Amino acid sequence: MSKIVRTRFAPSPTGGLHLGGVRTALFSYLYAKQHNGQFVLRIEDTDQTRFVEGAEQYINDTLTWCGIEPDESPAKGGQFAPYRQSERKEMYMQYALQLIKSGNAYYAFDTPEDLEAMRNAHRSETNPNPQYDAKVRMTMKNSLTLSAQETTALLDVNTRYVVRIKMPENELVTFTDMIRHEVSFDTNLLDDKVLVKADGMPTYHLAVVVDDYLMNITHAFRGEEWLPSAPIHILLWKYLGWENDMPNWAHLPLILKPDGNGKLSKRDGERLGFPVFAKKWTDINGTARGYDDIGFLPSAFLNTLVMLGWNDGTDQEIFSLAEMIKKFDMGRVHKGGAKYDYEKAKWYNQEWIKKMDAAQINEFVKPLFATENIDIKNEDYFLAVCELVKERCGLLPEFIPQARYFFEAPIAIDIDSIKLKWNDDKKNFFTEFIASTDKISDWSAENIEEYFKNLATEKNIKVGELQLPMRIMLVGAKYGPTVFQIASRIGKEESKSRIEKVLGILG
Ligand code: GLU
Description:
- By secondary structure, the protein is α/β, with parallel strands linked by helices.
- The chain has helices at residues 19-34, 55-66, 89-101, 112-122, 148-156, 204-214, 230-239, 268-272, 291-294, 298-306, 321-327, 342-354, 358-371, 379-389, 399-403, 415-419, 424-435, 445-459, 463-475, 483-490, 492-506, and strands spanning 6-9, 38-41, 105-108, 162-165, 172-177, 181-186, 194-196, 219-223, 248-252, 255-256, 281-283, 286-288, 338-339.
- β8 (219-223), α7 (230-239) and β9 form a beta-alpha-beta unit.
- The protein is built from 21 helices and 13 strands.
- Among the domains are: 88-203, Alpha-Beta Complex (Glutamyl-tRNA Synthetase, domain 3); 409-506, Arc Repressor Mutant, subunit A (Orthogonal Bundle).
- α17 (424-435) packs antiparallel against α21.
- The strands form 5 sheets. Strands 2-1-8-9 form a 4-stranded parallel beta sheet, covered by helices on one side. Strands 3-4-7 form a 3-stranded antiparallel beta sheet.
- It is elongated, with a radius of gyration of 32 Å.
- The chain is 43% helix and 10% strand.
- Glutamic acid binds at residues 10-12, 44, 204, 208, 222, 226.
- Glutamic acid binds next to α6.
């Protein structure tokens, strides 16, 4: 029987979740769901020096906003709890000891001064950053250079130590990545990474392997920036005797800056004029906007992300989450970096705004009107207005200017634009129009248009010349759907009153 697919998203709570992180979560989620599997959120907080208060909650909130809820997580619990690595601290040491015993890891007692002296001694033009590796390890103070008794004696008196992996020499570590296919690393280029720190906490390298194993993870998705760490993890899987249970790896392509020059980083967002976070993120450096608060729909945000590195092989660009689950195909994820295109992201948002149904309008648009204290009259009216203007809104807050005049008469009126071509004929036309609206029994856009056009023909004025003044009378400015739709929607009395008011101003 094949194993249940279990994917994990394993962020470190070190700050706001960058959109690349959300894409990793999304791909991981899609893969799990399309295989009827489980999607796990694990918080990798072993590096206490980089821990940021609120970051875990922020990760939860982001996944909730996106609608990609984990099946197991610190907040939700699950069969493999705890899901926070700091709470699993006690579990890791036994595996470190197993590695020491099998000769694949060792205790290192070097002090910061020893390490500094090693770096100074080996630093050269060709080696600007000397590492603790096979070339130097036998000159250092560790359980490889000390006798067993000396090591035990140091441990007995609680000497500070770290545990390091003993990187083999002259080996090629090869594995198959779901996106990159066969990938190989020369172990001579790798250092003896720390597995357990002096505070007893495992490093990410040990914890990620142990937890992926203990949590039965079958597929591990992460960003390409983790590829250099992969050989360390592959070796640990092998040394711990778990090779047959190793997850399938997928190192997702980088998300690049819009000009293709390098990775889009957390710091880029505000500088490039668009957010890099799903939701607003605040820390000691200030507040960075998120797609949520600038007025993106989660569906549009996810659609933008899924297309960064994937397509379904057709021209289809719009995918709902349900469709993504159906059509997502790891075989079609490219390995090349994907340039981020904010204009395209806005286009997705506009497309998704056009597709919004009543429930979504109520969820995402109504609160904006409440914040502005706009009386939306009744729900049917509100929904009909939103239907009418939604194709003009690229971001949700644009509903306010696009729809406000349906609920309240405009305060600012662009009189100058009317005055430019105003004359007595037009004045007579509008005066007669409002005096004769009784002739339009059913105040529909079609009937208003028909009556308006007939009256214009009768008065020998071009309809085109009358629509701009009419628009400014009703809207205050030069935008919106057709004037007849607007008039019909705001009603006969309100239309008359707005026209009358402007006629009064024009004199
Ligand atoms: N904890 C790593 C991070 O912060 C995750 C790497 C992995 O998924 O293996 O992104």
